[in-house]
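Duplicate of earlier report; PPM-type phosphatase domain-containing protein input re-posted below.
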Amino acid sequence: MTTKTGFVGTTGTVAIVNGTDLHVAYVGDSPAYLYHTNGEFDPLIIPHNPMNPVEKARVKEVGGSIVT
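Output:
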């Protein structure tokens, strides 16, 4: 999809806590982090964007193209 300002996309992150279980779903490059009581953070997702070499290779492997 293109607009007057360029290409657009969608991102989203959802987290559900059920007791001691954490379920995270995401699309795009919206971040999600796990916060520890010692003040440290751990990333929970791998961004779906062309800056990620694994994602870039996956897109090309299935015949897609990346426009930057």
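The two ends are 14 Å apart (CA to CA).

Merging into the original ticket.
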